Amino acid sequence: MKVNGTHYRSIWFDHDLSEVRIIDQRWLPHRFEVVSLTTLDAFATAIRDMWVRGAPLIGATAAYGMAIEMARDASDAAMNHAWDKLHTTRPTAINLKWALDRCRAALLPLPVDERAGAALQLAHEIADEDVEINRNIGLNGLEIIRQIAARKPAGEPVRLLTHCNAGWPATVDWGTATSPMYHAFEEGIPIHVWVDETRPRNQGAMTSWELGSHGISHSYITDNAGGHLMQQGMVDMVITGTDRTTATGDVCNKIGTYLKALAARDNGVPFYVALPSPTIDWTVRDGVAEIPIEDRPEREVTFALGKLTDGTIGEVQVAPDGSPGGNPAFDVTPARLVTGLITERGVAEASEAGLAKMFPDLKGRAQ
Q: 180, 342 in Cβ contact below 8 A?
């Protein structure tokens, strides 16, 4: 995607500097900053403290983190240490473990002196694969938007509702839930996107920022407005991303997604999830019982980060003095509430049979 006319990925390797560079997302949408990650500790901090966020981007970042560590020390001990350090940063998004397992499996059989080069090449491959996966998710989601548009009066936009940021900053490029939006916009289909603010981190502000930069019509709304909009017939389709999806089609995504799915079911609004195949955890069947839900710092709830009246970026306290905050970062939407899973191979039924049919080569693979 482009920022001020310049194309950026969310993470890339700067060959001139021999460094991994990222967009530091702590400051978006108010300030655009690029920083370098040069040590294993820096990669772990960037993932844990959400300099990078979104399951696909976390996986790609972990792969580059492993590559940087292999350039420093390519021993088995260093590899296992890097795996452990990066894996403990965020427990819910399965792409993190998927990428680390893929790196370790590919590197362990190699001679130590070949590992650094192979690790960096594999990180490049994982990043490039993510871009292509998301592009194809967009093309498959575009077909759903086309069908909705064909049933609407000429010129009336297809109204989409999304939650959290499943956009370009959450992936290496294109985004998952936003990819169909970009494809529809480029095709000339009129769309309007209702963007949930997504408290407490307000990732919806990032979605608004990237849609606005692309010229896509949108409105930034409170998290509690979605049900009302659905009741009023003002939502044609809900589309979200996912941080982990079970082998049976349960979907774990940013906190509040479950409530949107319930409202969508009550109002007959289709609820779709943009699902890259690395986000499927084939070892888990019951999402509510088995997926670990990250519990983040309470300060994210009791304080809010934003642009102050003097133009600086700072925190303001929104809770009373002494009030504790609870901050579960994700919830699970049961498969029965999901209309379909938009994958890079097509739209799958949210069920064990649907996923197995779409990914027969992956079914049963250990994460």
A: yes
DSSP string, 140-179: HHHHHHHHHHHTSPTTPPEEEEE-S--SGGGSSSS-SSSH
Q: What is the pTM of this model?
A: 0.94
271, 265 in Cβ contact below 8 A?
Answer: yes
Give the domains, in start order, of the chain with CATH numbers: 2-128 (1.20.120.420), 138-358 (3.40.50.10470)
Q: What span, in angstroms and rounded, lies between the C-alpha atoms of 196 and 192?
A: 13
Contacts of 38 by beta carbon, 8 Å cutoff, 6+ apart: 19, 20, 68
Give the DSSP per-residue string, 5-16: TEE--SEEEETT
Is 307 marked as binding a ligand? no
Is 167 annotated to bind a ligand? Reply is no
Q: Which of helix, strand or coil describes residue 106?
A: helix
Residue labelled with tokens 């420093």: 72
Which entry of 173, 196, 243, 281 is annotated as an active-site residue?
243
Number of H helices, E strands in the chain: 12, 18
53 marked as part of a ligand binding site:
yes
54 is in an annotated binding site: yes
Amino acid at 305: L
Query: Strand, coil or helix: what is 252?
Result: strand
* C-alpha gyration radius of the chain: 20
Active site residue 243: yes
- The answer to whether 21 is annotated as binding is no
**pLDDT tens-digit profile, the chain (367 residues):** 888 888 999 999 999 999 999 999 999 999 999 999 999 999 999 999 999 999 999 999 999 999 999 999 999 999 999 999 999 999 888 999 999 999 999 999 999 999 999 999 999 999 999 999 999 999 999 999 999 999 999 989 999 999 999 999 999 999 999 999 999 999 999 999 999 999 999 999 999 999 999 999 999 999 999 999 999 999 999 999 999 999 999 999 999 999 999 999 999 999 999 999 999 999 999 999 999 999 999 999 999 999 999 999 999 999 999 999 999 999 999 999 999 999 999 999 999 999 999 999 997 665 5
Residue 259 exposed, middle or buried by CB count within 10 Å (0-12, 13-18, 19+) = middle
- Please answer whether residues 261 and 273 qualify as being in contact, where contact means their C-beta atoms are separated by less than 8 angstroms: no
* Locus of tokens 């890079």: 344
